[in-house]
Structures are given as C-alpha cells and as structure tokens.
Amino acid sequence: MTAAVLRYSAFTTDPAGGNPAGVVLDARSLDDAAMQRIAADLGYSETAFLLPRADGDLDVRYFSPLAEVSFCGHATIAAMVARARAHGPGDVVLHTQAGRVRVTVGDDLAATLTSVTPRVDALSAEHLDALLATLGWRHDDLDATLPPGLAYAGAWHPVVAAASRARLAELHYDFDALAALMKVRGWTTVNLVWREDAQTLHARNPFPPGGVVEDPATGAAAAALGAYLAARDQLPASRAFVIHQGHDLGRPSVLKVEVPAEVRDGVRVSGTAVEISATD
C-alpha cells in the first residue's frame, strides 16, 4: 500500500515562507527504508511519519534526507495542523524517540507543542573554537551577555549568540567540516541567534548532518533556546519571546516560545502551518 505524502510549511501562513515538511498521517504500512526514501525524495529538512496507536496516542518518527532524527519541532507543528484538518482540533500525545511530546491544536489551527524535559550544559572552549572555525566567526563576533552553551529539548543544539544582526546575516560556513564536527558531538543543528530585545530574537540554524544547509524554522532549537535563556536568567518577565527565522533565506518564519516556571515541565513552542503544493 502506498502512503499519501502531504506537504506543509510550518511557522508561517504563507506557502512561500516557513520551513517545509513532509507529513504522512498513517505510516503503518511503511518500513524504515520506505520512510527514508520518501524523506530523501522530498528533500525537505524533515518528514514526519505518524503511526496511530490503539489508545489514541501517536507514535512519530522523523527523517531528514540523510538519516532519522530523534525529534523535529517544525515537522511536528506541520503534522499536527495537517492531522487537525483531517480529524479536527484537540490535544494529542506524541511518542517520539526523545520521549512524550504533548501537542494542542486550537480551532484556529494554530499548534502548540510542549517539549520533553529540557537540559542545558556547558560548551567547552575546545568545542567552541572548533565550531567558530567552521563558521568563520571570531570570539569578538559574539554577544558577551549570552555566553555559548549547549541546550536540549529533544535534540542537542549549541547556542551561539552573535553580537550584531549583521554578523548573523553573513553566514558562509564550511559544510563538510561542520557536518563532521556535529556528527562527532551529536548536535542536530547549530542555533545561531541575535537578541534584538528581551522579547525578540533572530535565529539561523545550519543543519548539515541532515544534508540541509540551513533550516528556515527550527522548533526543537526554539524550545532548547527557551531552556538556555531560563538557565541564564535571561528571560523577560513574561517568560515568553518570539523568534524570527528564515528571513535571510527568503522564507520568513515566526516561532512563539513560552517557558513555564517549572522548566522541567517542558518548553512550549507555538506556530501555524499551511499546505503547500509540490512546486512551492
């Protein structure tokens, strides 16, 4: 049996914006090789494969064009909006390789995911130097108020803050060198950010391990960034902020992040998604 493959773009209302993802609403007929082949043929940074369970929950698997990944935020938003259009809005529990992820889709078809329990760790000087070398960045390009770190909310991401929007805009990295470094360290994307103000950040996320130069929107990294900011006491009083991503790629995206007082309960990331055609 051939599974139907949908195409959605997440964290946007415009098919020309956001981060495209493949969605298979019922992948129970597919084996690993078929899932990988579909993801590679689509060429999107991730494709989400839903496997409905008897208890009403969903098992979910995510594949980039090159490999399976433990969790993907933008494909989750895309898949849950697609599912809500077919079955109606509501609450769903997803069982991912990273753990349980709760998702709520409202009547307006905006989706909110609540991440697994996040973690924040140090980024060693050695690994920072290696990362900056692949990016062609210097230490004085960095924002001293947001020291580099590692953050996890389903996948690990180095968080590196640029001192200026101009530095963030000039991203010409060594794809092969960064891919090799990230494979060794187990990093999914590199979360490069610039803080405009307490409530507004801009982000870029290289993703060479998945065979993708850059993600236009990265929900897992957004959740991890929320945990990183909380650990450094850098959240605004509302504990909510907005991430603008994809503008430098011509695919603008908006990700809304909320960090609860009990961070271990998971970071919430919200956004919309829109169906796109095969030619978009």
Can you walk me through this structure?
This protein is an alpha+beta fold. The protein folds into 2 domains: 6-116, Diaminopimelate Epimerase, Chain A, domain 1, CATH 3.10.310; 119-265, Roll (Diaminopimelate Epimerase, Chain A, domain 1), CATH 3.10.310.10. It is built from 6 helices and 18 strands. The chain has helices at 32-42, 73-87, 125-135, 165-169, 175-185, 219-231; strands at 6-10, 19-24, 46-52, 58-63, 68-69, 90-96, 99-105, 111-114, 119-122, 149-152, 156-161, 191-197, 200-207, 212-215, 240-245, 253-258, 268-271, 273-275. The chain has an 18-stranded mixed sheet that branches. A hairpin with an 8-residue loop joins strand 1 and strand 2 (19-24). The longest helix is centred in the N-terminal third of the chain and has 15 residues, at 73-87. It is globular, with a radius of gyration of 18 Å.
Name the descriptors.
single chain; 280 residues; alpha+beta; Diaminopimelate Epimerase, Chain A, domain 1; 2 domains; 18-stranded mixed β-sheet; 24% helix; globular
